[in-house]
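User: Sequence in, structure out. Go.
Assistant: Echoing your sequence, followed by the structure tokens.
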Amino acid sequence: MGSGRYTYLLFFIPVGWGLIAGVLAWWLGLVQDIVLPVASMLCLALFAWRQQHRN
């Protein structure tokens, strides 16, 4: 009785994981292009600010 739903799930789960992997790959590419340079600049600025205020 539930075999049809089970095969549907078996078909749907890899498709869902493929969509998730695609979105994650696109998001990681976006992160690499935008967020990583901004984050590294912020970390450098914070480090320089801390160095200035410690002296």
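User: And one key feature?
Assistant: Residues 3-54 form the longest helix (52 residues).
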